[in-house]
Amino acid sequence: MPTSFSLDQLTDSNDNFRYRPDPMINNIEVTSNRKKAYKPLPAPPTRRQLTGWTVEQVGPQMWRVFRNSTTQGKQAVIDYNTPEGAQRFADGCNGEHKNPTRMSAASLRNKNKEHLTEDDKIALAALKDGEGI
User: Fold this and answer.
1) How far is 72 from 44, CA to CA, in rounded Å?
2) 97 and 108, same domain (yes or no)
3) To the nearest whole number, what is the mean pLDDT of the chain?
4) Whole-prediction pTM value?
């Protein structure tokens, strides 16, 4: 868009050409995002708050995997362009949630003794004997 100036902006009292800025330019308020206070995101839901992962079609060729929790509701996790891929991801998340993979040796040692399952106790005893998991 070309800039346009009025004749009285371009000339002074002696008809010499000189640019005078528009006096209304000072009435423009400049806003900045820096004034906004920082608000941290809420913590992700805990294992007990999670209720599962579901797949929904959100476009003609787009399927979205949602994480459901009791505290934060339905949250989008990842998009797929095939229903099979989205369902595989959701099934994997649900399977891992129901039956988590074995913990690492360090986290197994740090876990409270009253929360250990029988399998965890056997694995911890094997670690103390110098064997691997």
Assistant:
1) 8
2) no
3) 77
4) 0.50
